[in-house]
Amino acid sequence: MNPVLHRALRSLQRNILAGLITTGPLLVTWLIFSFLFKTLAQVGLPAIRLLAAILPDGVLTQEWLQWVLAFFLTLTLLYFVGRITSQVVGRQALVLFESTLERLPFVAKVYTSVRQLLDSMMAKKGTSQTVVLVDFPMAGHKCIGFLTRSYTDSTTGRLLAAVLLPNAINPTSAFLQILPMEKVTETDLTMEQAMSMIMTGGAVGPETIRYDKAPGSEEEVGVSQTVNIATVNIEVASSETGS
Predict the structure, then answer these.
(1) What is the mean pLDDT of each run of 10 residues along the chain (243 residues)?
(2) Where are the domains of the chain?
(3) Do the Cβ atoms of 170 and 186 come closer than 8 Å?
(4) Of 2, 160, 209, 225, which is the most buried if we count CB atoms within 10 A?
């Protein structure tokens, strides 16, 4: 290849890559905001279009104005729903609503699973939520996961761990792994740090991370105690609900 052409192609490639690195975060931010804006606006858009049909011509005929008003209408509705559910009457109404959903065969499973997952992912610092590393998809390849609870092998009595492994960039899809507790490595990552690493493909994260278990450490015992406490809490909550 011609040296001049080769240098030109290398310079073009380098400049394009630098441009992607510079504008990439802005593009991702814009895509996320655009998705949220369209999703929320579509909820309130029918009401805004009904209002536009009632009002005189020329008031709400512009399409962009209808989308903006629909977006803020949805935010307003979400705000009032949150305020209502945070009060005593609202909490009682929410309990009644959830108990009604639990009587529906298919909806109950989906709603309960999603609600438990969201509560677990939004758990505050100091709760039983733990960020761990497991060998996935093969031995020697570590994957970030969230330790959700523990199980006991009915045959051997061995302690097992349920670990949720979100996919990088797209954490809405994930793998659920059931594996021996001794195969789980507890990290010093917080939930926020782990989600930042997953969402950015590892580009954003702490400078150091606990990768290997320290020789003779009591880390496995700590993980087991954490999961057992979470399991006891779940069992107590289930018994209270049943009573």
Answers:
(1) 76 79 76 86 87 75 85 89 70 72 69 65 54 88 89 91 86 84 89 84 83 61 44 42 45
(2) 88-121, 130-211+219-242
(3) no
(4) 160
